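ok, trying the design again with the full structure, not the truncated one.
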């Protein structure tokens, strides 16, 4: 099986998580930012993640891919029920998280932006959505304390969530993304959770390139 991804992409991370949890043989192909041809050729639209299944069919939509891969062998990992408190935490913090991660992602070390042209394409794609990214980065002084307050509140919620299920595919990709933000304070249970899931899923956190 082959998955087409961006390394920074939280939705692609869901695919990497399920493949990692289940030890599925997966070949990864990083699509370069700005490369519309590859995804257009495969699935007729510019999107990642894309899964090429053993039967030759292609799938998009990260959660559909997760559910499909989860059926391939036991045990299952992407089962209900979703922890509604953790999902609500993600939903209410998504805008704030995005404001912190996007201006850092465009400067980071990911394969999909490892050439000047691809990095520029990423900057342009994100600037179209979020406006001036340098200005957004400068507002980190405002956003980081807000985020830290929300992360402190998360700690008790996350300590009650013990077994891997669908909830983890909703929250972990965003916490992993936040690990690229220096001065973010993950509370102890949250940090323990992040390390546990990263290890089980065999995906790296981003602390080594935080700023
Ligand atoms: N609902 C989709 C969302 C995927 C998505 O938003 N992917 C982004 C990358 S993070 C994308 O493909 N952007 C289009 C582009 O690169 O132009 C899913 O869950 O798979």
């Amino acid at each position: 099986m082959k998955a087409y991804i961006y390394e920074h992409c939280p939705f692609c991370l869901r695919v990497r998580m399920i493949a990692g949890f289940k030890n599925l043989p997966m070949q990864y192909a990083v699509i370069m930012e700005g490369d519309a041809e590859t995804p257009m050729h495969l699935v007729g639209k510019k999107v990642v993640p894309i899964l090429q299944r053993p039967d030759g069919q292609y799938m998009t939509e990260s959660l559909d891919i997760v559910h499909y891969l989860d059926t391939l062998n036991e045990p299952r990992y992407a089962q209900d029920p979703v922890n509604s408190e953790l999902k609500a935490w993600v939903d209410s913090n998504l805008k704030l998280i995005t404001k912190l991660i996007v201006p850092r992602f465009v400067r980071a070390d990911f394969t999909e932006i490892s050439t000047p042209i691809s990095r520029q394409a990423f900057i342009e794609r994100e600037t179209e959505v979020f406006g001036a990214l340098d200005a957004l980065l400068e507002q980190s002084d405002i956003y980081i304390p807000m985020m830290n307050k929300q992360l402190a509140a998360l700690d008790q919620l996350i300590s009650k969530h013990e077994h891997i299920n669908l909830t983890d595919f909703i929250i972990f990709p965003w916490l992993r993304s936040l690990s690229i933000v220096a001065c973010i304070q993950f509370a102890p249970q949250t940090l323990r959770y992040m390390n546990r899931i990263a290890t089980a899923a065999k995906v790296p956190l981003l602390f080594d390139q935080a700023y």
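Keeping the full-length input from now on. The chain is about 55% helix and 5% strand.
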